[in-house]
């Protein structure tokens, strides 16, 4: 029987996600991951496999992190427009406080999804989770819409969210981000 792990996998994964989010897959070294987690290579490999496995594990859990942090803005009472406005404001406020990393899912889509089937599959599962929440919020405010229209509106908001996070990462000023977010909300 092997020794029990001396660390929390979820804590290590959170640190790993942070490194990949900040530096991207190619920019992240195993030494970066060791420094962020405080774990040695052997412990990391035992828990997650190789660097690619660590990246995929980070992607697998990120939609849940995103929705846990920003999801309450969508779940709070209000119209669909108010809910999405609060959702986008969450990211604009984070940018105003200095967090301009963009969205890890968006970064992964442009960084690795076209290069790696496992990353692409993890990304698609994560995006589907976000789309499901978006569709539920839209359907709750417009029960007369058919499922296809609801899905299309959710997909448009996902595309808009990705665009907004790219603008955040690019350093656009807060007033521009707010104006852009209002246009996205108006599209619903």
TrEMBL record:
<keyword id="KW-0804">Transcription</keyword>
<feature type="DNA-binding region" description="H-T-H motif">
    <location>
        <begin position="29"/>
        <end position="48"/>
    </location>
</feature>
<dbReference type="Pfam" id="PF00440">
    <property type="entry name" value="TetR_N"/>
</dbReference>
<dbReference type="InterPro" id="IPR036271">
    <property type="entry name" value="Tet_transcr_reg_TetR-rel_C_sf"/>
</dbReference>
<dbReference type="GO" id="GO:0003677">
    <property type="term" value="F:DNA binding"/>
</dbReference>
<keyword id="KW-0238">DNA-binding</keyword>
<protein>
    <submittedName>
        <fullName>TetR family transcriptional regulator</fullName>
    </submittedName>
</protein>
<keyword id="KW-0805">Transcription regulation</keyword>
<dbReference type="InterPro" id="IPR001647">
    <property type="entry name" value="HTH_TetR"/>
</dbReference>
<dbReference type="InterPro" id="IPR009057">
    <property type="entry name" value="Homeodomain-like_sf"/>
</dbReference>
<feature type="domain" description="HTH tetR-type">
    <location>
        <begin position="6"/>
        <end position="66"/>
    </location>
</feature>
